[in-house]
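Give me structure tokens for this 226-residue protein.
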Amino acid sequence: MVATAPTAPSTAGTAGTPLAPTSRRGSRIAVVTAVLLAIAVVALLLPAWPAGEDMGSTHYMGLLAANQPWNLLLFMAVPVVLAETIAVTELAILFRRTVPPVVAGLNRYAGLVSGFYFLGVVVYLTKNAVVPLTTGGGWRGWVDVVAVGFYLLGIVPLLGMSLLETRVVGAAWDDQRRLKVHATLVGLFLVVAHVAMIAGMLDPAVAGWDPTHVMEDGARMDGMTH
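Here you go.
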């Protein structure tokens, strides 16, 4: 009797064979990581926009007021509209048994785009505003730090939603759990965004900042200085 060699087990991902779940997840993680790195690199390479007139307000308000209407659109309108779209469509998904495809599509793609877009915003402002203001002592009191800090914290829920939509996070979760986490992230973004707005609209002098203080030239940064 001639012994036969054992047959090698089939490998997932060969021609005609679907990839195993772990292989698919690994591919998704690799693609998403590459996209995130590309966005960060582009944001780092972008030149700082010229600053507008210094109004003596928080740097948050100065950023939105400068270069009208572009700063307002890019740094406020786009992320807020995406978040509001997610919030409204999320309500329709939560309270309707049958969700229209257009509503589900808006919810998914708004959630997908929001985190990737805001990552570029955060990287750009960190390079052109946060680092120079911190190293140069340019912050206008605690309220200025709160306004900018909470604005940038929006990356946590927005990127979290994008990772959910790409299934990098929660790939094995059921739809109910994914929906709960998604809705929680939407609420978290609205909270940090409104804290940033309220603090950003406050006069730093009211919060204890001395308006007679003159910042060093090196502390001024085109990307966020008024």
